[in-house]
């Protein structure tokens, strides 16, 4: 029985790795637009002149800007050559199909090929893209797009540096306005320290699997693993919800749609860990196998998938980056530790001889 469960666990782990590889390209493409972290901090300082009802903020670790217009008047965002690029008003959001920025801003790298009719000098051709009052876009003026950091950063990478002050022109009817902001280099954290703490924590949790399953201590260890999986599963659900909120998702429906579109694996593994934790607390049959499998999925999809924050100073969540790192560490410690403990308990059970009828009578 135990060997069969171990074989099934191996098959499931292999399938999970295969799914990860098969979905790597789409995930990377999504990550290019919504990075897992950054060392460049983008901030909006003000909108000049101030307009009640006009709000601008930075989202997705600085990858995009979000503008919400509740002024009751159309506001235009001006492109790189002084041409109208976006228009946000009471009748929805429009993009100018003649503006090069419409195409360059579709990717974070700005490497989209321009169509032949992209001409900033041509009259605007407006195309409606949304019926709301909010627009989100990449803007090269607020980003650092070079592969190498600025010279000042290379000379002193352990210090914070102002890369530049930036502005994005707006137009309110015939009146000009602008968004102003800053772009700073922020030294990344020591990833080695975070990984060391995570590994030590995972080993400590995994050591629970050394306690004899049939002994009272082993029963308490299984309960502790169940509680830890519930904690890790909760964090694995909260973290992607935070990412969607940071990316501008509105309401429960917007968050769910974003989770299904970009954070599905983390959500499913988090829910699976919650179920596995409850299963372990109930001491159901094959609880050790469930703990090991849920822990492996938790560490792989919800932990490793977000571990970039260990080496990045800006996290794509609405909380301080230190909290983001703690949450990811909790998921990794719980997932990897539960996997190790579950496998150890399964291995010990497979080596325990089953009493024969004769031995039982004796």
Features:
seven-stranded antiparallel beta sheet, 362 residues, alpha+beta, 11 helices, disordered N terminus, three-stranded antiparallel beta sheet, 47% helix
Helical residues, percent: 40-55%
The low-confidence parts are 1-32
Q: What's the assembly state of these chains?
A: single chain
The side-by-side strand order for the widest beta sheet comes to 1-10-9-4-5-6-7
What general form does the structure show?
A: elongated
Secondary-structure-derived class: alpha+beta
Fold and architecture overview:
With 362 residues, this protein is of the alpha+beta class. Helices cover 47% and strands 19% of the residues. The chain contains eleven helices and ten strands. It is elongated and about 85 Å long. The two termini are 25 Å apart.
Brief rundown of the structure:
The protein is 47% helix and 19% strand. With 362 residues, the chain is α+β, with helices and mostly antiparallel strands.
Topology:
Layout: H1 2-22, H2 24-33, E1 40-48, E2 54-59, E3 64-69, E4 75-78, E5 84-89, E6 92-96, H3 100-104, E7 126-130, E8 134-137, H4 151-155, E9 161-172, E10 175-185, H5 191-206, H6 216-246, H7 251-262, H8 264-281, H9 287-303, H10 321-351, H11 357-361
Antiparallel strand pairs: 1-10, 2-3, 3-8, 4-5, 4-9, 5-6, 6-7, 9-10
């Amino acid at each position: 029985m135990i060997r069969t469960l171990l074989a099934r666990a191996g098959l499931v782990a292999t399938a999970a790795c295969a799914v990860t590889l098969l979905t790597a390209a789409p995930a990377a493409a999504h990550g290019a637009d919504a990075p897992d972290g950054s060392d460049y901090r983008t901030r909006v300082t003000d909108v000049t002149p101030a307009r009640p009802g006009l709000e601008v903020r930075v989202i997705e670790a600085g990858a995009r800007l979000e503008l919400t217009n509740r002024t009751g008047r159309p506001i235009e965002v001006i492109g790189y050559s002084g041409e109208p690029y976006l228009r946000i008003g009471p009748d929805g959001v429009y993009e100018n199909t003649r503006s090069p920025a419409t195409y360059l801003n579709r990717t974070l790298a700005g490497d989209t090929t321009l169509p032949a009719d992209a001409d900033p000098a041509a009259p605007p051709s407006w195309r409606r893209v949304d019926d709301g009052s909010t627009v989100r876009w990449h803007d090269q003026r607020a980003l650092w797009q070079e592969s190498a950091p600025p010279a000042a950063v290379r000379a002193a990478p352990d210090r914070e540096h102002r890369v530049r002050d930036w502005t994005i022109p707006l137009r309110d009817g015939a009146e000009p306005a602008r968004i102003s902001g800053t772009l700073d280099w922020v030294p990344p954290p020591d990833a080695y320290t975070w990984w060391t703490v995570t590994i030590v924590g995972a080993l400590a949790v995994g050591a629970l699997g050394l306690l004899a399953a049939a002994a009272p201590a082993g029963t308490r260890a299984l309960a502790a693993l169940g509680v830890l999986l519930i904690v890790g599963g909760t964090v694995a659900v909260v973290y992607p919800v935070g990412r969607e909120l940071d990316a501008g998702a509105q309401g429960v429906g917007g968050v769910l749609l974003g989770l299904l579109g970009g954070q599905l694996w983390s959500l499913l593994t988090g829910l699976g860990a919650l179920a596995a934790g409850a299963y372990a607390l109930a001491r159901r049959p094959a609880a050790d196998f469930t703990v090991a499998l849920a822990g492996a999925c938790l560490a792989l999809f919800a932990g490793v998938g977000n571990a970039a924050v260990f080496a990045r100073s800006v996290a794509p969540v609405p909380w301080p980056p230190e909290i983001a790192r703690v949450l990811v560490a909790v998921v990794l410690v719980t997932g990897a530790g539960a996997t190790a403990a579950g496998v150890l308990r399964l291995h010990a059970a497979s080596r325990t001889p089953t009493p024969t009828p004769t031995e039982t009578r004796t």
